[in-house]
Amino acid sequence: MARYRRVLLKLSGEALMGSAGYGIDPEVLKAMADAVAEASDGTGLAIVVGGGNIFRGVSSSARDMDRAEADLMGMLATVMNALALGEALRARGVVAHIQSALPVGTAVPAFDRRHALACLDRAEVVIFAAGTGNPFFTTDTAASLRALEMRADIMLKATKVDGVYSADPKRDPAAVRFRRLSYDDILQRRLGVMDATAIALLREYRVPLRVFDMTQPGALARILAGAEEGTLVEEGAQCE
After folding, report:
1. 15 and 160 in contact (C-beta within 8 Å)?
2. What is the mean pLDDT, run by run of 10 residues, along the chain of 240 residues?
3. What does the alpha-carbon distance between residue 45 and residue 189 come to, in Å, rounded to a whole number?
4. In DSSP terms, which residues pair with 172 in a beta bridge?
């Protein structure tokens, strides 16, 4: 039985490219779609996807561009990822809707909060593309914003490591994994889980955040069923 009625899941674009240096790895996309399909039964699942897997390939060209124009390219990259994920989910029988904060003609419907809420009430999946639709805001901030708009019970951040560590565990073998943290801990320790704006939004409205390893089979389904995986971040939590 699902523990949560509505959940916001943040997926990074970089995760979609797997071991490749650019684009979407079909096997990774399949694994992500399988994980969402397995977990979404009974829960309204909203997804915000990043675009780093596509934008990274053109980032060197964008280095000298105006920041607003470069961010526009990044937003369009998230639209492509959303389309790919949506199709992969539908192929698995999942009812998935895509909405874009950036007008893209007939390719993707525009963001519609009321429609998205109705879909989530039916335990369907809604994928939000193009971040906030504005430059200078990350997709992490967009995820926090959508979590508030969708009245999510919790926000999940999918990573390649099993939670939040005191340092990068790939570089520092002495790094310690935290089970629980407060938002103040994240900001004061500069742990880099998400940007400060995203964290501040969640802290102000007391939306809990769980950081977990999406590559572990069944992890998403276990969390939605109430398992204590990864690291839980919430206001007033004692650092453990």
Report:
1. yes
2. 88 84 89 94 94 70 77 92 97 97 92 98 97 94 98 95 88 90 92 92 96 93 93 86
3. 30
4. none
What six digits make up the tokens of 143? 């995820």
3-state SS, residue 106: coil
- 11 vs 78, 170, 185, 193, 238, CA distance in Å? 10, 20, 23, 13, 27
- Residue 1's pLDDT is what? 55
Q: Which two tokens stand for residue 184?
A: 């103040």
The residue behind tokens 């839980």 is 232
What are the helix and strand counts (H, E) for the chain?
A: 10, 10
Distance CA 22, CA 30 (A): 17
Q: Are 59 and 100 in contact (CB under 8 A)?
A: no
Q: Which long-range contacts (CB under 8 A, 24 or more apart) does 147-150 make?
A: 147/8, 147/46, 147/202, 147/207, 148/201, 148/205, 148/207, 149/113, 149/116, 150/6, 150/8, 150/44, 150/46, 150/113, 150/116, 150/117, 150/120, 150/126
